[in-house]
Amino acid sequence: MDEKWHEIDTFAKKAIKEAGRKIVDSFDEVLKIQTKSNVNDLVTNMDKQIEKYFVEQIDKHYPDHRVLGEEGFGDQIQDMLGTVWIIDPIDGTMNFVHQQRNFAVSIGVFHEGEGKLGYIYDVVADELYHAQKGNGAFLNDEKLSPLKDVPIEEAIFSINATWLVPNRKVNHEQFIPLVHKVRGTRSYGSAAIELAYIAAGRLDGYISMRLSPWDFAGGKVLIEEVGGQLTDLNGEELSMVNNSHIFAGNPAVHQKVLKDYLNN
Ligand code: IPD
Ligand code: CA
Ligand code: CA
């Protein structure tokens, strides 16, 4: 990784920490909460303020970079040409509103379609997961180890209960044998945190439907840097401009589940 990317990495970390401080400061203020696609799809003034902050900072320091942000303050992105920042200012807004924890800032920086930098900042736990392609992944100052194979019977899987009951997006029955087989299941309500936990070896698999690129861009760089896999439910590469059903995992678990449980 050359000097240019080190400099962008330093800039990104500084901006992310500053965003974290702004979010923590907002805990004393009354949030303005609105709904988006449905009554449970929440957005607050802080989601918007934080995304605007990143867009302003990036425009000022790197005017030739483009931004794909969840709240729409960045650019209209239809391709991955040049350098593109994919930003979820607050992933886990429902947790942010109801719990004031278990949410994260998530950022992936891609160059000509290749993931170069990845960040997931669990603000309240003060855990910054970060990776530079080719230079390893870290949790704060600690280097994350390459993921080791885990037998499926010992795997901890993250999947939301929504996908285990009849729903409009996916056949829930395909997941039942998997849930029976694994050691345990969890659901944290923030795709970014769940992906960071895969990279840290705290979870061995994560399945979620219809996520957007900003939900998984940072996680993709992190997970790939420790030898994990992040694909769709057929094992195919994810689009960074469209929504996808996603499956992240430890390499052994990912391979076995694709073949034996998801009929690939
Ligand atoms: C949501 C969270 C959640 C996932 C949803 C996402 P948001 O992101 O990642 O865990 O299940 O699909 O939309 O809206 O809080 O940024
Ligand atoms: Ca999100
Ligand atoms: Ca969000």
The unreliable regions are none
CATH architecture of the largest domain: 2-Layer Sandwich
* Strands, total number: 14
Q: Major sheet: order of its strands?
A: 3-4-5-6-7-8-9
Beta fraction:
25-35%
Helix percentage: 25-40%
CATH-assigned homologous superfamily of the largest domain: Fructose-1,6-Bisphosphatase, subunit A, domain 1
Mean pLDDT rating: 97
Shape: globular
Structure characterization notes:
With 264 residues, the chain is of the alpha+beta class. It has seven helices and 14 strands. The protein has helices at residues 3-25, 45-61, 93-99, 176-181, 191-199, 213-225, 251-260, and strands spanning 33-35, 42-44, 66-69, 83-91, 104-111, 114-122, 127-132, 137-139, 142-143, 156-159, 184-186, 205-211, 229-231, 244-249. The strands form three sheets. A seven-stranded mixed sheet has the order 3-4-5-6-7-8-9, sandwiched between helices. The longest helix has 23 residues, at 3-25. The mean pLDDT is 97. One calcium ion binds next to strand 4.
